Amino acid sequence: MALFLFLALVAVVLGLIGAVAEGLGYLLIIGIAVLVIDLAIIAVRWSRRTGRRPVR
After folding, report:
1. How many CB atoms lie within 10 A of CB 38?
2. What sections of the protein cross the membrane (predicted)?
C-alpha cells in the first residue's frame, strides 16, 4: 500500500509541475503515465487477493 501512495504522490507532483511550468508539458505526460501504472499495479494486487478466499 505504501508503494501505491508513493506513486500516487509522485504522479500528482509531476502533473502539477507539468501543468503550471511553461515548457514542461512532458512532466504532465510522465505524471499521467505514472498514475496509470500505479492504478494497474493496485488492480493486479486486488485481483490476486480476492482469489485466495476459501469457497463456503
Report:
1. 19
2. 25-46
